[in-house]
Design brief:
Length: 203
């Protein structure tokens, strides 16, 4: 994962209003992450992120800023900071934005299957957010459709949520980071040890 802060990728638009997140801005951790999809093409991811940002602050929407706290690429290793973890998102509605963080997968996963790269990026982002204390270690991830009459985050991505969460909960390491093999000590008998000592003495 290559995490890009907002200043590293923004098209230059400015939020018309910033609402501190009631939980994370006060040092707390959210227990729920809501997963969305952008219903756009996947690549190039930088151009897609900027297009989403411009659309969300434009006259066609009621958003103050890009609606998501974070956006995740499905075509490369980029993960984009949107509003960030300390600002209340605007994507979920149903009174949930003040209690959750929103993550958007760039692409349309009602029609297509999410690539492993996207799932790895999600695992890496969530692992980072847990480590930084803004997401609780025992968090749950839920599709946007749990809170609103929508197909978001797409049926093909929604089915991957349990596996993504399980990897974050149980692996404890970002995706793609090699895990050192576990070395199991071998118990040797006294006779084997004596035989090796005898061989060394005879050298």
């Amino acid at each position: 994962m290559r995490f890009l802060s907002r200043s590293e990728w923004t098209s230059g638009v400015k939020a018309s209003e910033v609402v501190p997140h009631p939980v994370t801005a006060n040092g707390g951790a959210v227990g729920t992450v809501v997963l969305h999809h952008s219903v756009t093409g996947r690549s190039p991811s930088m151009a897609r992120a900027r297009a989403i940002e411009k659309y969300h602050v434009g006259p066609e929407t009621d958003f103050f800023d890009v609606a998501y706290n974070f956006m995740v690429s499905a075509s490369d290793t980029f993960v984009f900071e949107g509003r960030g973890a300390l600002v209340q998102g605007g994507a979920t509605g149903a009174g949930m934005d003040s209690k959750t963080l929103s993550v958007c997968a760039i692409g349309n996963f009602e029609d297509s299957v999410p690539p492993q790269l996207l799932l790895n990026n999600l695992v890496d982002l969530l692992t980072m957010l847990v480590a930084s204390g803004v997401v609780a270690p025992d968090f749950v991830m839920r599709p946007h459709s749990d809170f609103k009459a929508t197909a978001c985050c797409g049926k093909n991505l929604a089915v991957e949520i349990p596996g993504v969460v399980s990897r974050v909960h149980h692996l404890g390491k970002p995706a793609g980071v090699p895990v050192a093999p576990v070395v199991v000590p071998v118990a040797y008998s006294a006779d084997q040890k004596l035989a090796w000592i005898q061989q060394i003495l005879e050298m």
